Every structure is written in structure tokens, then in C-alpha cells.
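# step 3/5: fold
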Amino acid sequence: MSSISFRALVEGMEGQDLVLGVVLLGAGLVFMIVGGRLFKMLLALSFAGVGLVLGASLPISEPYHWVVGAVVGLGLALISTLVAKVAVGVLAGGWAGLAVAAALMGVGVSDQVVLIVGGVICAVVISLTFVLYQEIIAAVMSFEGTLLFLAGLIVFLSHSASGWAPLRAMFLDMPFFGAFLLIAGTVTGFYLQVTELQKRQVGTSG
């Protein structure tokens, strides 16, 4: 993800209510640790969130755009439960394409190249979903969980003026710092979920 993406995350979360921070931290841990077990419910929540954002971003007067967002979110959530494998592929491919596109934009690559490469990565990940289904579930749940956890962490840290200032500078001025945290959290969650999956498979076969 580019520095612009992390700037949006930091500026959007800092100073928010601590209760929101607790919710985001808890949700992030759930996604990262038991995302594989609860993936159908979490998948529906993910698409509900996507639909809410898409609907709310339409050029409709308030509060109707939130109503449209809620309807779109509920519709996508329902569809994701009916075609889970396709939904996992679309979600994983979308995140992968966006992450690569953001990284390329951060180093000044042209918009056309960004769109092409992002689209190719999205298509490749969608294809891999039908081969490595459980692994892709673990990866996308861990990625989303890490994003939620970092957002909650930013909320908490931003309430400490003395401690937040240097960390804020690191997030905004050193994009690799945020990218490292995101990758580290995703890899950790992925490892935990895949390990649990392997243990369940061994227990079932035994």
C-alpha cells in the first residue's frame, strides 16, 4: 500500500472514540486468529462493508446515500453466502489488485500500467482461489484483520499526544513502516490459521 493509503487510514482513525478502537482491535484479532473457522460470517460482513461504502459514495443527498449503502451492503452480504467460493476469489483478488496498484502508484508508475498490472494480479488471485481455497481464505481474513487491528491501534495511540507524534510521523513519512506492519500481521494471521487448519485435517483423518 502506498503512503497515500496509510495517510488516509491514519487521518481517518486518529482521534476517534476509544470504544471504536476497542471494537476494531477485537474484530481484527477475530479475523486474524479464527477467520478460517468463521469465514462465511466474516465474508458476509466484509461484503456488507464494501457495499455500504460503495452505496454511501453515490452522489445522493444525506441520509439517503446511507440507506442505499445499507441496502447494497445487505445484498452483497447475501450473495456472498450463496456463492462463497466466488465471493472469496473476488474479495481476495480485489484486495491483491488494490494493494499492488497502490504500491505502484506510490513509486510513480503511470495510471495505465497500474490498471493493467492491478487487473492481472486480481485475475491471478481469483484463479488461485479455486486451487488454494483454504489458503486464500486464511490470507484474505488475515489481511483484513490486520487492517482492522492497525486502525484500532491508531485510535488508541492517537489519544496519547506525546507518544503518538513520532509514530504518526513514521506512518506518514515512512510508508515502508506501515507496509511492514501490514505484511507482518497478515503473515502471522495466515500462519496461525493454516496451522490450525492442518491440525484439524490431521485430527479428521486420524
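# step 4/5: annotate
The mean pLDDT is 86.
# step 5/5: archive (pending)
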